[in-house]
Hints:
- The complex is a heterodimer.
- By secondary structure, chain A is mostly helical.
- Helix content of chain A is 67%, strand content 0%.
- In chain A, helix 3 (28-56) runs parallel beside helix 5 and helix 7 packs parallel to helix 10.
- Chain B is α+β, with helices and mostly antiparallel strands.
- Chain B has two domains: 37-78 and 85-114, no CATH class; 122-266, Sandwich (Immunoglobulin-like).
- In chain B, helix 2 (37-70) packs antiparallel against helix 3.
- The longest helix of chain B is centred in the N-terminal third of the chain and has 34 residues, at 37-70.
- The radius of gyration of chain B is 25 Å and the shape is elongated.
- Chain B starts with a helix and ends in a 15-residue tail after the last helix.
- At the A-B interface, helix 4, helix 11, helix 12, helix 13 and helix 14 of A face helix 1, helix 2, helix 3, strand 7 and strand 9 of B.
Amino acid sequence: MTESVALPAEPHHAARRGLMRWITTTNHKDIGTLYLIFSLIMFFVGGAMAMVIRAELYQPGLQFVTPAFYNQMVTLHGLIMIFGAVMPAFVGLANWMIPLMIGAPDMALPRLNNWSFWILPFAFTLLLLTLFLPGGAAEGGWTLYVPYSLELGYSFPFMIFAIHLMGISSVLGGINVIVTILNMRAPGMTLMKMPLFVWAWLITAYLLVAVMPVLAGGVTMQLLDHYFGTHFFSVAGGGTPLLWEHVFWFFGHPEVYIMILPAFGIISEIVPTFSRKPLFGRTSMIYALASIAFLSFIVWGHHMFTSGMPVSADLFFMFSTMLIAVPTGVKIFNWVATMWRGAITFETPMLFAVAFIILFTIGGFSGVMLALVPADFQYHNSYFVVAHFHYVLVTGAVFAIMAAVYYWLPKWTGHMYNEFWGKVHFWLSVISVNVLYFPMHFLGLAGMPRRVPDYAVQFTNLNMISSIGGFVFGASQLIFVAIIFATVYGGRRAEARAWEGAHGLEWTVPSPAPYHTFATPPEVAG
Amino acid sequence: MKHQGFQAWIGLALVGAVTVPRTMAASLYNLPRGVTPISHEIYGLNMMAFWIMCGIAAVVFGAITWSIIFHRRSRHPKPAGFHESTVLEVVWTVIPFVILIAMAVPAARVLLRAENVHHSEMTVEVTGYQWLWRYTYPRWHINIYSRLANSSLRIAPLNSGLSPYSVPHYLHSVTHPLVLPVGEKVRLLITSKDVIHSWWVPDLGVQMDANPGLVNSIWVRIEKPGIYRGQCNQICGWGHAYMPIVVVAKPKAQFQAWVREWQERHRVDADDASPPSPQGS
């Protein structure tokens, strides 16, 4: 490390070529790229499962798959989209951008970094292979509620092992992010001067380190119940199935914020750039992130309002959940205030960011409605919930990821993407995604449960509309892939500062960013 | 089919602008008003929250739209420099807080009423199985197994070649419904014999998990005779979609007649002389 400081801008060893470069790399940019490519592949794998689901739901009656296979699709779609697509995408962005944004030469723990990525392909290969075991893959939904999940056949231990691997990968990634941000900032980059994306990731990383072990502990308890005669979750032996729900959601709710806080960070970078105005209320944005993260630990019971918790617990979780709307509202208002009286242009990243603000807010509205316990007695586990979490995770997290890719693609590749096709991708996505998810609100209110392969005929029309939206949304993502390929291999040259309104250290290095950057720490103006 | 799709679009466009008339059987776009005091209150909460959210949406989305139209560079080339305002920040922290309290208080009131199972007049035990419900009336030793009706069962399998439209209430009809009296406070004790199920009847405003080894209680007081349909709402195996719930609410006299008829048919020792409702209160 010390030698490399003495030889700025010179690689201190020749990069390996071909496959071995990618397997042995400890470079944060290479590993970031690997994460992003892996995530993109998983988006399509999980997306293909969503297409199976939407095809089966296109009309009542079973047309394509058995109920058991449908349940496997539902379960794997959830696990893959969460752990394989959204989380690795954010870790990839963190790997690429955090060192560039804080003026560090690399992540603090480069070998660990390599390992945390390379665990993932094995974890997901294992998970996907369970589809081919006798009895098929896991069926109980990504929430793995006991005792249903203990009824699984051969796939059960493989799935648990895959989840352990994902957890190890996430925790190691989280530790790396924390250590990097706390130790590797350029001189003059105080904590409060850090870009919002870095702040969001610092907080996210703490959430990861705090809750992934809880999931690991929980699934290990399931493993023990299944094979070693313990009774954590069976009443007959003094346990209770509700224990799993508590353990799972104590992990599960912070997990939800793990998938949205980095998105908040991305939007807080993009909106000021294209509004040509500094972020409004920067300090309160940071405090809002921190309070959302804190609150995420005390709201898990809102996933369990129908489980038969005592009234006092219902009341506590209702109030704490509603409280989250306050800091989240602050974030939304501050983004709007950032746009207010700016000089806004609408390049593709900004389009996705504005769509994020509006559509994530719609997800927030249904979230507040779901927090009202008696109303949740009707909404719970219905398609209203499916609509809610797809608005926050697809038009929220995924739109933010797409915005980030368009925003930083010039920095990664040295080329500008094709703006026309970017806009085509945006408009097709934003229209189809609403055709896909908006009708689900009505389906849920009218009484359609989630996780069913077949339904009563009065739900047909809205399901058809939703499926058509789903097919168009899925197909539109092929444009996204084509744009990425085209930008990697060609396109107009990007300047160091690809966007005229952009500020931040990442725009001071050339585009594409050289293999090694900030071997000498940059000066951050006081 | 095409025509119906078009109607659905119109419905989408109109929802929120039009309130569903009271006389309409069941809305395809909103919660049912239902037939219990709690379901009415839930409907009220739902509409209150919906309109408050619409109000907030109008303000926030209005501001965004205004910015998009008037603060784009082509119309507003010189960006303003402001990036802080303590007053504004306090305002948009306090106002949402007040709105949330305004929603939380009535919700808490309804919750306390919904969870108060005291002073019930009769009890029914509801037990979930993979994949059927069992209803037990302890006072009369009535035991009902309620499965998916054969009419739906024939159609449901993959490639059955039969149309779900060919029977009434596809997937929402059962062999033997739960029969309840109108006007009485009925306590439901809900549990499961295998995995977690959930007993959900939207018209009654009730959804409660059936946990193996644990008993949850909830109550209903049905106001109107009728047939109310729901289904299991917790994924419980491949048959999850095939364990519907049908509740038939009968006026008290007819309900008592039904009890007598059931007992005669099943030659169970009638126990009508026992003290009224030992399970209640």
